[in-house]
């Protein structure tokens, strides 16, 4: 048996809840099996901060601020295959519920109008990334190759998708199981 | 001797099915157990033909099956990759036009729009999300109106007029500004005579009209589309369980 | 007469009086007419000329047509006036003195940039006139004290043919009709092979025949005077100069199909023609050509009401027009059944274009052979064209069908022509290679709009304006048109601001085909025509605007940070995002 080089996999969470990453971990012992074929690069799982050239990038979460845009672009530039993972990456998800309001309304509600705030004001620390006017799906900012719907996508979905990529097949997403919640 | 009128059949995807005068293509196919994807059609209610998902090719010409009369000899293409791909695109249009955040919607799992998207293999909205700002009407004690999810199918409008005998709803405005309105002086649902057992309150194929205090009644695994696929014929009875007309 | 009780007319009066239609008024009107309040509310929301918040005392609507629009002269006159008067476009000034917005083509394409002020057309605009207007408005000078020449609408007729050359006296056509009888007249119309002049080209004789044969409690004749296709203004002239022949055509049709009641559905933009049309009707009643026992025939009663629209292009579609006549939003019906069997109030109804009815009068008078002597075998007779855009003499031209595009261009003094839009935005965009084609239903069909664009013009800007037009005029009934026309406009917006990528062109093509193929009515079927024609014949106009990338973000990233920059008062380099390849 010839030994194929391992696929390099990077993951990140933008405006998401890390639920998709949790679901990924729900693959349990199958992760060990996958590790025969893939190795992790930058990811919350590894705590690697620098992104190297990768085969697969999994993006959880929508795009809500300038930093998300930078991270997403970095992943696009370095990943051969970029995958939008979960409801937030695909259509903004729950964070996009704020799109019903202006940024000003949202921030005032949270930081100015909330009772018992000490020094109520809209946070303006330069360290904080600037928020976009809306939360956007990732495919409106960069080109996305595959979409894994679900909130979160199930561990089986991750497993099947990655297995197919490892085998060099075209992933058959949605043909077996599809859900948005 | 009275001769039988020439046998009346239409041919749909190489299956011959009978029809009687006055039936639409949709009526005939549903009766024969053949599924044509649809969202704004509901058996027993006057068809209107605005979602366009049921578009089939009749002798090469695209026509909405729900409003087109069946005619002898029609050759109809329905379940083809091209038509289903277009239906998926139309479904994506409905998703991106409104705010369809499934994980936060009470209708999830019981939602024909969502089930249609599953059926057509929709993985994402594809088109630019419009994120419209639309008015929510929570004024009524037992029924909720969340226009964010309205797909303007007008089923509630027709159900209220034709079945409930009430005329609670209408569609106003044009183009992308079209919206569901309530037929009361202040436009609020609370002043209408709608009741939770009305068909209009239950027919909504999305989470735009919801019966309050029943969200998440069915746990995951027990919801309609956990157990059924949208292409099963006759699911309407399940969608509207509890409606007045259902008791009769 | 039910004219004064028509919902659209009552709402118009309220709009005139209060400058908007309040929720209170909506409820009162609903009670007065015994209509559901939701219907009245839906109508107010549907028609562009009804407002739910007060307009200014001077309410100004600039045409945004490529020919009579506010950019037609090269200067953005809309912005100029809004600056002079310190008023935001689409908002009423705080003192309620003035409001300014844009509207779809107002049919003044032979009069340069034009606008409607309190419903009245004001033509031949230029920067100087805008300046003077601003002064008059600030001085609160009533419109009747403004220079009368500003409001002078002239009919520029440069070429007369079959119809415009021949003169008829009121009643000539009717007398000939009575002599021939019902069947004889219908046979004459059928033999003339007259086809609908609105653009669709359905056989007029067959339409009358189908309606005549359809069972119903009453039959109706409707004149479609909702000339809304941008670049069309020939009906405006016909309504002004040939109203008699028009009414006569309706009366002849009524005689043939057995109708007692007819309607002229006049577009709201032409409301200024109403007194003239009403006078024509009064005059014809006096002459015994309308009313009871027409020309002494005891069994021949017929009269005409005028219903005025309120700013909705879709009402030019015959079933939407009928809905509007019935006091509802102009949503096209599902067909079949067709109006000939199931039209106004569910009864058999003929809906004909102004020009068609006038041609019918002439045919009734002069016979079918007179008509078929000109044109082509499949497109008999002549066609009135509204020629506008880049030519020496914009105006009305009447040609026999079969004439080539090039012949027309030569006669109206068009040089250096890059493209011609025949039949308006819903028609066909032709490049030079097609100028040898013929104007005829079997080749290049048209309702009469003929817009000429010379080499100086940016074709993509024109296509973009057309896309905006359809997105604005889509009625919203069906998914592909309601959503698709918006997506097409947004796709072009992106390319226009120089952020388009190669995949945006593919996307335009795909959405265009969806809209064309799956829409409910003619508006949707044709809305993508300019884009599809543009991609086919003027692809370089798109390509030269594209970025070198395959994919770019679909929105302006930096603009999306603007609000956050304001809220946090950060504006350094790190507070900005660059657009680029993604």
Give a concise summary:
The complex is a heterotrimer of chains A (181), B (248) and C (582). With 181 residues, chain A is of the alpha/beta class.
- Indicate the radius of gyration of chain A in whole angstroms: 18 Å
CATH homology superfamily name of the domain at 7-96 and 134-167 in chain A? NADH:ubiquinone oxidoreductase-like, 20kDa subunit
CATH architecture of the largest domain in chain C: 3-Layer(aba) Sandwich
Indicate the CATH class of the domain at 7-96 and 134-167 in chain A.
Answer: Alpha Beta
Give the overall silhouette of chain C: globular
How many helix segments of chain C? 22
Q: Which architecture of the domain at 7-96 and 134-167 in chain A would the CATH scheme give at its second level?
A: 3-Layer(aba) Sandwich
CATH fold description of the largest domain in chain C: Rossmann fold
Major sheet size, sense and barrel closure of chain A: 5 strands, parallel
Mean pLDDT of chain C: 96
Order of helices and strands of chain A: EHHEEEHEHHEEH
Structural class assignment of chain A: alpha/beta
Look at the structure and give the mean pLDDT of chain A.
94
**In what order do the strands lie side by side in the largest sheet of chain C?**
5-11-10-14-12-13
Number of distinct helices of chain A: 6
Oligomer: heterotrimer
N-to-C CA distance of chain A: 41 Å
Pfam families (chain A): Oxidored_q6
Protein name (chain A): NAD-reducing hydrogenase small subunit
Domain NADH:ubiquinone oxidoreductase-like 20kDa subunit (chain A): 17-164
GO molecular function (chain A): 3 iron, 4 sulfur cluster binding; oxidoreductase activity
Describe this structure in words.
The complex is a heterotrimer of chains A (about 180), B (about 250) and C (about 575). Chain A is an alpha/beta fold and about 180 residues long. Chain A is about 30% helix and about 20% strand. Chain A has helices at about 20-25, 30-35, 65-80, 85-90, 105-110, 155-165, and strands spanning about 5-15, 40, 55-60, 65, 80-85, 130-135, 145-150. In chain A, the strands form two sheets. A five-stranded parallel sheet of chain A has the order 2-1-3-5-7, with helices on both faces. A two-stranded antiparallel sheet of chain A has the order 4-6. Chain A is elongated. The termini of chain A are far apart. Chain B has two domains: about 10-80, Roll (Ubiquitin-like (UB roll)); about 100-240, Alpha-Beta Plaits. Chain B is about 25% helix and about 15% strand. Chain B has a five-stranded mixed sheet, covered by helices on one side. A three-stranded antiparallel sheet of chain B has the order 6-7-10, with no helix packed on it. The longest helix of chain B has 17 residues, at about 80-95. Chain C folds into five domains: about 5-45; about 60-155, Glutaredoxin (3-Layer(aba) Sandwich); about 160-375, 3-Layer(aba) Sandwich (Rossmann fold); about 380-455, Ubiquitin-like (UB roll) (Roll), CATH 3.10.20; about 465-545, Up-down Bundle (de novo design (two linked rop proteins)), CATH 1.20.1440. Chain C has a six-stranded mixed sheet. In chain C, helix 11 (about 275-285) links the parallel strand 7 and strand 8 (about 305-310). Chain C starts with 6 loop residues before the first helix and ends in a 14-residue tail after the last helix. Classes of the chains: A alpha/beta (about 180), B alpha+beta (about 250), C alpha/beta (about 575). The interface of B and C includes residues 48, 50 and 176 of B.
């Amino acid at each position: 048996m010839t030994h194929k080089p391992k696929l390099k996999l990077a993951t990140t969470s933008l405006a998401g809840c890390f639920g998709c990453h949790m679901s990924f971990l729900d693959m349990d012992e199958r992760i060990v099996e996958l590790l025969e074929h893939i190795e992790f690069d930058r990811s919350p799982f590894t705590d690697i901060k620098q992104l190297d050239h990768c085969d697969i990038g999994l993006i959880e979460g929508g795009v809500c601020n300038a930093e998300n845009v930078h991270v997403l672009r970095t992943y696009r530039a370095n990943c051969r295959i970029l995958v939008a993972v979960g409801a937030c990456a695909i259509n903004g998800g729950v964070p996009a519920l704020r799109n019903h309001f202006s940024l000003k309304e949202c921030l005032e509600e949270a930081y100015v109008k909330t009772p018992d705030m000490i020094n109520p004001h809209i946070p303006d620390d330069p360290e904080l990334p600037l928020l976009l006017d809306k939360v956007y799906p990732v495919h409106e900012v960069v080109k996305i190759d595959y979409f894994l719907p679900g909130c979160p996508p199930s561990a089986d979905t991750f497993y099947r998708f990655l297995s197919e990529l490892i085998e060099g097949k075209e992933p058959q997403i949605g043909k077996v199981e599809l859900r948005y919640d | 001797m009275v001769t039988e009128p020439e046998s009346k059949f239409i041919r749909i995807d190489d299956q011959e099915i009978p029809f009687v005068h006055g039936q639409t293509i949709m009526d005939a196919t549903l009766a024969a157990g053949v599924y044509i994807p649809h969202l704004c059609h509901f058996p027993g209610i006057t068809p209107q033909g605005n979602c366009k998902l049921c578009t089939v090719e009749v002798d090469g010409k695209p026509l909405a099956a729900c409003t087109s009369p069946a005619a002898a000899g029609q050759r109809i293409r329905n379940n083809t990759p091209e038509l289903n791909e277009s239906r998926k695109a139309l479904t994506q249009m409905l998703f991106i036009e409104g705010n369809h955040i499934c994980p936060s919607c009470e209708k999830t799992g019981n939602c024909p729009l969502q089930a249609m998207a599953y059926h057509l293999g929709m993985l994402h909205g594809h088109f630019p999300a419009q994120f419209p700002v639309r008015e929510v009407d929570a004024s009524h004690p037992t029924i909720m109106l969340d226009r964010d999810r309205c797909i303007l199918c007008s089923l509630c409008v027709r159900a209220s007029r034709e079945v409930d005998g009430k005329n609670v709803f209408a569609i106003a405005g044009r183009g992308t500004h079209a919206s569901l309105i309530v037929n009361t002086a202040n436009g609020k649902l609370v002043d209408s005579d709608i009741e939770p057992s009305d068909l209009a309150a239950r027919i909504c194929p999305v989470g735009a009209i919801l019966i309050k205090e029943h969200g998440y009644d069915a746990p995951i695994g027990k919801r309609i589309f956990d157990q059924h696929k949208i292409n099963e014929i006759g699911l309407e009875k399940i969608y509207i369980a509890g409606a007045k007309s259902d008791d009769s | 007469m039910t004219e004064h009780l028509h919902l659209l007319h009552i709402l118009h009066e309220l709009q005139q009086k209060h400058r908007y239609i309040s929720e209170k008024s909506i409820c009162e009107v609903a009670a007065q007419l015994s209509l559901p309040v939701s219907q009245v509310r839906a109508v107010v929301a549907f028609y562009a000329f009804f407002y739910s918040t007060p307009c200014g005392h001077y309410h100004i609507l600039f045409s945004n047509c490529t020919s009579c629009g506010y950019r037609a002269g090269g200067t953005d006159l809309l912005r100029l006036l809004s600056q002079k008067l310190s008023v935001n476009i689409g908002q009423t000034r705080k003192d309620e003195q003035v409001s300014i917005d844009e509207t779809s083509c107002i049919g003044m394409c032979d009069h340069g940039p034009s606008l409607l002020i309190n419903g009245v057309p004001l033509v031949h605009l230029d920067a100087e006139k805008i300046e003077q207007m601003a002064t008059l408005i600030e001085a609160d000078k009533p419109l009747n004290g403004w220079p009368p020449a500003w409001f002078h609408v002239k009919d520029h007729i440069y070429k007369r043919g079959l119809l415009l050359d021949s003169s008829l006296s009121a009643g000539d056509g009717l007398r000939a009709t009575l002599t021939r009888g019902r069947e004889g007249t219908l046979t004459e119309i059928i033999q003339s092979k007259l086809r609908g002049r609105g653009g669709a080209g359905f056989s007029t004789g067959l339409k009358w025949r189908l309606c005549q044969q359809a069972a119903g409690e009453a039959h109706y004749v409707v004149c479609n005077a909702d000339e809304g296709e941008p670049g069309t203004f020939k009906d405006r002239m016909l309504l002004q100069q040939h109203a008699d022949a028009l009414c006569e055509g309706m009366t002849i049709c009524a005689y043939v199909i057995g109708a007692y009641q007819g309607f002229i559905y006049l577009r709201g933009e032409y409301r200024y023609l109403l007194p003239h049309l009403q006078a024509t009707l009064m005059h014809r009643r006096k002459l015994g050509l309308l009313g009871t026992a027409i020309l002494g025939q005891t069994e021949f009663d017929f009269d005409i009401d005028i219903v005025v629209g309120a700013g909705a292009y879709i009402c030019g579609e015959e079933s939407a027009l009928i809905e509007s006549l019935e006091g509802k939003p102009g949503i096209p019906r599902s067909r079949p059944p067709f109006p000939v069997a199931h039209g106004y109030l569910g009864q058999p109804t003929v809906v004909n274009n102004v020009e068609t009815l006038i041609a019918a009068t002439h045919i009734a008078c002069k016979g079918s052979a007179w008509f078929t002597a000109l044109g082509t075998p499949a497109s008999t007779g002549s066609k009135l064209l509204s020629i506008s855009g880049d030519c020496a003499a914009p105006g009305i031209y009447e040609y026999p069908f079969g004439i080539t595009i090039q012949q027309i261009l030569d006669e109206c003094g068009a040089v250096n022509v890059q493209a011609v839009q025949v039949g308006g935005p819903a028609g066909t965009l032709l490049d030079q290679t097609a100028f040898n084609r013929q104007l005829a239903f079997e080749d290049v069909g048209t309702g009469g709009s003929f817009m000429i664009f010379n080499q100086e013009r940016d074709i993509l800007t024109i296509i973009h304006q057309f896309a905006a037009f359809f997105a604005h005029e889509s009625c919203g009934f069906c998914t592909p048109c309601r959503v698709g026309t918006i997506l097409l406009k947004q796709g072009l917006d992106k390319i226009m601001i120089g952020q388009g990528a190669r995949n945006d062109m593919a996307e335009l093509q795909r959405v265009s085909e969806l809209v064309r193929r799956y829409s409910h009515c003619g508006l949707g079927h044709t809305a993508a025509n300019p884009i599809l024609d543009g991609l086919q014949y003027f692809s370089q106009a798109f390509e030269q605007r594209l970025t070198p990338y395959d994919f770019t973000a679909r929105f302006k990233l930096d603009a999306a940070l603007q609000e956050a920059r304001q809220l946090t008062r950060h504006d350094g380099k790190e507070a900005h995002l660059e657009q680029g390849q993604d």
